[in-house]
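Proteins fold reproducibly. Look at a sample protein:
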Amino acid sequence: MPQVMQLPPTPSGDREFSFRGFTLIELLVVIAIIAILAALLLPALNKGKLKAQGIQCLTNHRQLCLAWRMYSDDNQDRLLYASDNPYDSSTIASTWVTGYLQWYNPQDPANWDPNHDITKSPMWPYCGQSLSIWKCPADRSFVVVNGQAKPRVRSMSMNFFLGGFGGWDGSGFLDTASYKLYFKQTELADPGPAKVFVFLDMRPDSIDIGNFAPRMSGWPNQPALYGFYDLPGCYHNLACGFSFADGHSETHRWRDGRTTPPLLESSNISDQYSSPNNPDVAWLQDHATRPKK
């Protein structure tokens, strides 16, 4: 017959196990250890998340810039305008994107409806029907419409000097009259397509129409005149994503705190101000355009 294993008797004579639970002190020690490990791991996980978002942002920049270049290749080397001319509606058809992102009127569909402007862009047929490439993945801004949170549609803007306001340089209220607007790919030879940015990320409290206007006052050797008309993005640990006319993209880190003031939630920041001797302004100027000859 098979043998049956019997448990040794307990001191009381009953054949059963006696289990002892954790004491309160032991539980608190375990919880404390878990909390310490979490505190050690979270910064590394957050850093990894930021790095992944930065990589995806550069991918989006490359794809959007490729769409920009493909449009140009199919249209006799012509470049799209950074913004339309407000006094000439015929320029809308040749503008990369229209619409005005604004906090003070969140109901405006330009903020949240991609069919209002983005899918009407002349670049849209070259974008593979991808809305995501129009935004930095770290941009979590949204507007509330009828009680529902809706993501904003765009965080990327175009270098103003690529066509300006439908061919107009904005002279009279911008310091642009002495600087080149580019209308053809071949014109980018000065200073070279690798030196001219096409798109950059913009802050949600500064972005509005489709262009980013670098303030050129003081270029190249009068830094006391430096300043801003618009503020660049700083989603990636005080750095910003850029794409360039030769097709490459890169992340540029800002060095001066005046370039990255605290972000305003659900309102527009005062983004036009002087910033003397700011090396970030010098970098933006050097990668935007060149003086007219």
Residues 30 and 211 are 55 Å apart (CA to CA). The helical segments are 24-74, 109-112, 279-286. The first strand starts at residue 142 and ends at 145. The two ends are 108 Å apart (CA to CA).
